[in-house]
Amino acid sequence: MKKPEILAPAGDMVCLQAALDSGADAVYIGLGDFNMRARSSANFNKNDLPEVSSRCKKYNAKLYLTLNSIIFERELSGVEEMLTFAKPYIDAVIVADWGVVTLCKKHNIPFHISTQMSCSNSISAQFMKDQGAERIVFARECSIDEIKDIIEKVDIETEAFVHGAQCVAMSGRCFLSHFAYGHSANRGECHQPCRRRFLIKPIDRFSDENGNPIHESTTEFEVTPHTVLSAKDLCSLPFVEELVHAGITSFKIEGRARNPEYVKNVVAAYREAVDAVLGNRYTQEMKDRLVEKAKEVFHRDFSTGLFYGRPGKDQFTDTEDSISKYVKKNVGVVLDYFTKAGVAQIKVQDQPLKIGDTIQIHGNKSGVVEFTISSMRRDEEDVTIAEKGTWVTVLSPRVRHGDRVYLMAERTASMRGSL
Fold it and tell me: Beta strands 26-29 and 62-67: pairing type?
């Protein structure tokens, strides 16, 4: 039984460090253009790449560049420039365009076939291999049994999405955002109209001699469940052992646009799960605990995706917002860290703190540090509450000046829609 790679998303340095600290074997990133998160802030730039590569090497983790949008004629020179710049720093490129495949081969850069290319059978997989692909990312429509069949027939590295958001369209190739807003999902600009509520209202096809509708009606119906095109999030933790036994090379976690605590929790959960499967100790109790861990961060309703068959009505969520157990509230910033004492000085700028609160500290080098406050001091005095506008010191793992501090509060009904 082969040990699968845990492949984590990273949209910034905080997420990158969180992924590495949580046990990721590999990380995938974008460089702004030509990827499926191009419109979001979840991208690095060229100047970041040497540092990103250095951190990955320090953790013995691989680094993959997403270059997986469709490419137009006038962009080819820009794509080639990006590839030649990135080559010394990356292990492979994730591609979805045959022009990019050709450029990768021209510059001898390893490439992986994106799920956008819908590789869903052994003939396609063999063809991709013959074209020089090092790895295929399965079409998201593939079931576990279909994945097993392809792996048995074709000797090529394989990758499958195991956790995160799912697109209602085939392997993510959707045109709804393009038609509705002029922003193409296939260019990394999706505005996610599928995640919104839809309204049905009658339109009269008949009019009088003056052009007025004969059967005019103001009746409107809100579709129920109201997110009729919004797919549930995928969570494979309840059956991850089946994916390990199927022989998949890499377990991919969706979420380059997600927040750092999502990366931390989800990567850590799959790291623990995979290690437990390989050690023959993946119990039902552990499955339940890790699913609960994944529920602590941004997520919609969970489902098994399409691993057990074609989609049905139970694949769609009836909630618009995150249903995570916790919401992140801004506290303030780290003013200083005293290494010998293991103490952080925190400036409280917004949400007050009290003993017993669970906080997270986010930083480009610190990643995501989470702990429960056991004591607080100010000017040699013990305090129980740190109000807005004050400062306080707390025992803390290593963090750094300028890191952001957040309170992890239990979500209530009034917090619906909070991230």
Answer: parallel
At what angle are helices 284-294 and 260-278 packed, to 10 degrees? 170
CB 295 within 8 A of CB 324: yes
Q: Are 26 and 5 in contact (CB under 8 A)?
A: yes
Decide if pLDDT at 312 tops 80: no
**Residue type at 262?**
Y
What integer is the mean pLDDT of 131-153?
Answer: 96
3-class secondary structure, 365: coil
Give the architecture-level CATH label for domain 5-169+231-315.
Alpha-Beta Barrel (3.20)
Extents of the domains making up the chain = 5-169+231-315, 172-222, 326-415
Helix/strand/coil for 175:
coil
Given this model, what pLDDT does residue 380 score?
A: 87
Tell me the pLDDT band of 171, cut-offs 50, 70 and 90.
Answer: low
The pLDDT of residue 296: 92
Tokens 């991850």 — which residue?
A: 240
Q: What is the structure's pLDDT at 169?
A: 67
Superfamily of domain covering 326-415 = Translation factors (2.40.30.10)
Alpha carbon distance 160, 140 (integer Å): 8
Looking up tokens 């992140």, which residue turns up?
Answer: 328
Contact 174, 247 (CB under 8 A): no
Contact assessment for residue 133 and residue 112, using Cβ atoms and an 8 Å cutoff = yes
Q: Can you tell me the distance from the alpha carbon of 326 to that of 412, in angstroms, rounded to the nearest whole number?
A: 9
Task: Quote the radius of gyration of the chain (alpha carbons, Å).
Answer: 24
Domains 5-169+231-315 and 326-415 share a fold: no
pLDDT in the model for residue 231: 79
Percentage of the chain with pLDDT > 70?
86
